[in-house]
Amino acid sequence: QVQLVESGGGLVQAGGSLRLSCAASGRTFSTYYMKWFRQGPGKEREFVAAISWWGDSTNYKDSVKGRFTISRDNAKNTVYLQMNSLKPEDMAVYYCAASRGIATSPDYWGPGTQVTVSS
Predict the structure, then answer these.
(1) b or e along 66-88 (b: 16 or more beta carbons within 10 Å of the residue's beta carbon)?
(2) DSSP calls for 29-41
(3) 1, 9, 97, 117: least surrounded by Cβ within 10 Å?
(4) Helix (H), strand (E), coil (C) string for 89-115
(5) Are 9 and 115 within 8 A, CB to CB?
(6) How many CB atoms lie within 10 A of CB 30?
(7) CA distance 75 to 20
(8) Quick one: pLDDT at residue 26?
(9) Is 64 helix (H, G, I), strand (E, B) or coil?
């Protein structure tokens, strides 16, 4: 069982930055691919970024490439999402998730953290 808790969301002006964190419980954190998803108002949940078990491979949604950076610290059981040059269309509830592989559906989800971007 893995429990995930996101933090770091908030209100930011367009062009600003936020750093999201996701703390995981348990001793198996390094055996999970970690991912970030988001769900904007009236939209379906969508993939944002993923990072491999040891952090040597990352994947991003095209629209966030060059602006967002996913990273992880297995010693702290934490995954991060650094978001720069935020746009109003980035406004959403951001969720972290744990899955066994890059192509597998998440086994565990966090409750989400709200990111609001004002124009």
Answers:
(1) eebbbebeeeebbbbbebeebee
(2) GGGSEEEEEEE-T
(3) 1
(4) HHCEEEEEEEECCCCCCCCEECCCEEE
(5) yes
(6) 14
(7) 17
(8) 79
(9) helix
